[in-house]
């Protein structure tokens, strides 16, 4: 049941660590995109989804990605501070998914959290990175310019979070990669409303090309870590 009332007070987020603030923002980006392109969308849900997406795009485009020792979002308690506005956008994206549920990025993300402990928002962002590329290649009319742009900012912030060691993403290869793909494809409650059909071999190819969960760049990171330790 939806709540009768929600209290949105940005001041309560001021002491929230960057890891949690950024994960929540990236999760909200995925909520807005997935509701916006969901086959279960309605005119009303799309208004909420697109409003949240456009606001998040404006905010994240002008925010520097996380870097060590620097607060990711400012600590101003003002009602127009970045934290307060992110909170409002996240709530609007929440209204959108309450009408449609989520789609592909969430379907694939749950396995990363359950098996590798990747925080939910980062797991969704890592999955969205290749899923948007797949959708743009396979069915370009599904991904409008604003969605493409907000996913580009999502990638920038996710990469910043990895560099700042706010999150570790697994490098998936072989059977681990196949398990990730199969877990996502089998989650019918989410994949049934994903707007673009995804085939197993296509998914594996796009994950490799994206490189955030597997493929050349992920393998390089995995090989480097023991040498640096
Ligand atoms: Zn979520």
Summarize this entry quickly.
With 229 residues, the chain is an all-alpha fold. Helix content is 65%, strand content 0%. The chain has a single domain (17-222), classed as Dehydroquinate synthase-like, alpha domain (Up-down Bundle), CATH 1.20.1090.10.
Plain-language structure description:
The protein has 229 residues and is mainly α. The chain is built from ten helices and no strands. The termini are far apart. It has one domain (17-222): Dehydroquinate synthase-like, alpha domain (Up-down Bundle). The relative contact order is 0.16. The protein has helices at 18-37, 43-61, 82-100, 104-116, 120-138, 145-163, 174-185, 188-191, 200-210, 216-228. The protein is globular. Residues 27, 31, 106, 120, 124 line the site of zinc ion.
């Amino acid at each position: 049941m939806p709540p009768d009332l929600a209290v949105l007070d940005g001041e309560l987020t001021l002491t929230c660590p960057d890891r949690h603030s950024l994960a929540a923002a990236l999760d909200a980006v995925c909520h807005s995109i997935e509701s916006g392109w969901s086959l279960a969308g309605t005119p009303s849900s799309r208004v909420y989804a697109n409003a949240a997406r456009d606001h998040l795009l404006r905010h994240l485009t002008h925010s520097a990605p996380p870097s060590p020792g620097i607060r990711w979002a400012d600590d101003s308690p003002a009602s127009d501070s970045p934290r307060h506005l992110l909170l409002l956008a996240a709530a609007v994206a929440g209204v959108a998914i309450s009408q449609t549920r989520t789609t592909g990025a969430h379907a694939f993300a749950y396995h990363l959290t359950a098996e590798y402990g990747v925080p939910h928002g980062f797991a969704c962002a890592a999955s969205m990175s290749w899923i948007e590329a797949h959708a743009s290649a396979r069915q370009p009319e599904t991904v409008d310019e604003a969605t493409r742009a907000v996913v580009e900012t999502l990638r920038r912030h996710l990469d910043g979070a990895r560099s700042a060691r706010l999150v570790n993403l697994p490098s998936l290869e072989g059977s681990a990669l196949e398990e990730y793909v199969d877990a996502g494809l089998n989650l019918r409650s989410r994949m049934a409303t994903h707007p673009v059909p995804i085939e197993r071999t296509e998914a594996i190819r796009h994950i490799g090309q994206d490189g955030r969960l597997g493929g050349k760049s992920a393998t390089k990171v995995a090989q480097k870590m023991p040498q640096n330790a």
